[in-house]
Structure formats: structure tokens, C-alpha cells
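Long-time lurker. I teach an intro course on protein structure, and each term I like to show students one example going from raw sequence to a predicted 3D structure in C-alpha cell notation. This year I'd like something fresh instead of my usual example. Would anyone be willing to generate the C-alpha cells for the chain below so I can use it in lecture? Attribution to the forum is fine with me.
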Amino acid sequence: MTISHVSKRSGVASSALRYYEERGLITSERSGSGHRRYPRSTLRRIAFIVFAQRIGLSLNEIKDELDKLPTHRIPTQKDWSLLSKKWLTQVDARMAELQKLRDGLESCVGCGCLSFEACHFANPEDKVSKAGSGPRYWL
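-- Reply from a regular --
Happy to contribute to a lecture. Here you go:
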């Protein structure tokens, strides 16, 4: 498939596809005229990349995962499933963190005082200041 066909089918810009190729996430072969040609299996890899980015994985982490796929054959559904299973703990941890942030928006930030020093509910006697500066409740 040409780069424009892959871009159209995947919804990913051609510039991003070239970047993914530069980073080793996908591969192409060059035609006689020098144009990139991608195998159909590239669409599955791109879907994986997009999904992995949405759940918060970096491109380096994604590449590490893609490197675990077999190179001597097209990856099967089982291959893809094995990669995604280990993400469940990451997704669960991210959901817990988002819930904590949501709770903070409703209780602390939503109260209007915006002062952890003066907040007797969240920080009695400013005990959190001993842990250092910044949003200690969220780190």
C-alpha cells in the first residue's frame, strides 16, 4: 500500500507515518521509483500505536512492545492479545489516579479556598509542607 493509502485507511497523517518509520515502529519497502510501500499488516501496527498512545504509553514503550512481536510471520490475534494484557495494570493505575484527581476537583479545588496551608480538612497544621513544595497530594 502507498503511504497515502495507509494514511487514509488509518486516519494517521503521512508525516506521522514517516516519523513512526524513522523511529522503527513500522517498516516499508521502496518501489523502483523510491516510493514507500507498506504491507497490509502495517494497519494493525498503526492501530496498536494509536491505541497505546491513548492509554499513555510513550513511543519508546510502544516500540519495546512491538519489538516483541514475531518477525518471521504476521502477528496473530493471540500475539496482539498477549501484548495488551500487561497494560491492564497500567490502565487500572491511571484510572485510580484520574479518580483521585476528580475527587480533588470536587472537594479541595472546588471549595474555593485554594490554600493547602489554610485547609484544615486536607492539610491540618500544614503537615504536607514537610514533604516539599508542589502539589504533594497529587504526586
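Some talking points for your students: The beta strands are 29-30, 36-37. The mean pLDDT is 83.
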